[in-house]
Write a structure and sequence with these properties.
Structural class: alpha/beta
Protein name: AAA family ATPase
Strand content: 15-25%
InterPro entries: DNA_Partitioning_ATPase, MipZ, P-loop_NTPase
Organism: Sphingomonas piscis
CATH superfamily: P-loop containing nucleotide triphosphate hydrolases
Pfam families: MipZ
């Protein structure tokens, strides 16, 4: 496990594009030559698992080898089962991507303690920002970090004490609008202020594009442009967003290779 890099996608709020981002990250890293495993902690919705199952089915139907991650869903919701799954997957993987449920969950908290890179996707709104920090209703300045930010702070501190390794906390701004607005600037300014106080990095994620929802049934990603077909300028721009997101995550050895993919 010591040489395996753990990327944990965690957010107690649903609907932030967490699973979509987790799958795109796993496939991008697999496409760049990493041995990747994905662990889905949401045994009810199984979005990550279903996405990767759809991908495997598409590869069989097309008779093509598509970059793929080994995947597993955590059926038994216990810390013991989590540790056993992590041990199994990390024995064969350079990178393990863990997708947590969109709710407060004891197993998800245990998974956060394993993160080398902790990714918190959020939609670009004050509704989502409230999860990690509260803002003043008039000047939109941060008034205080939220309970979730304190939880992450404590988890990072605990991990550092136990392992001596730091955690790179990345807040991912998903569903960014492509038109500049007052709200976008205000959310960005509040995030930058909170980042300095709490200690996370902010990077752009995946934009608000219909293509991300359309890819799910086939299990394809924006690195599979040949399989998607009918490639337009929007798809190429979206693929560039993905490449920039992966580079922004700064996973060891991932940036340069991923930029060459597809």
């Amino acid at each position: 496990m010591s040489n395996t890099h753990f990327i944990v996608f965690a957010n107690e709020k649903g609907g932030t594009g967490k699973s979509t981002t987790a799958v795109h990250t796993a496939i991008a890293l697999a496409a760049s030559g990493h041995r990747v495993a994905a662990l889905d902690l949401d045994s009810r919705q199984r979005t990550t698992t279903r996405y990767l199952e759809n991908r495997a089915a598409t590869a069989r139907r097309l008779g093509q080898d598509l970059p793929q991650a080994q995947y597993e869903v955590l059926e038994e919701q216990s810390e013991e089962a989590l540790n056993a799954a992590v041990d199994r997957l990390s024995a064969e993987a350079d990178v393990v991507v863990i997708d947590t449920p969109g709710r407060d969950d004891p197993v998800a908290r245990a998974a956060i303690l394993k993160a080398d890179t902790l990714v918190t996707p959020m939609n670009d709104s004050f509704v989502d920002l409230d999860l990690i920090g509260q803002v003043h209703p008039e000047n939109y300045k941060i008034t205080k970090p939220s309970f979730y930010a304190e939880l992450i702070w404590n988890s990072r501190t605990q991990r550092a004490k136990v392992t001596g390794r730091s955690v790179d906390w990345v807040v991912l701004r998903n569903r960014l609008q492509h038109i500049e607005s007052h709200n976008l600037r205000r959310v960005g300014a509040a995030l930058d202020e909170l980042a300095r106080r709490v200690g996370f990095r902010v990077i752009p994620g995946l934009g608000e594009r219909v293509i991300y929802r359309e890819l799910f049934p086939k299990g394809l990603t924006l690195l599979d442009l040949k399989q998607i077909g009918d490639v337009g300028i929007g798809h190429i721009a979206a693929r560039q967003e993905l490449r920039e997101m992966i580079a922004g995550l700064a996973i060891p050895g991932a940036g340069a290779e991923t930029a060459k993919v597809a």
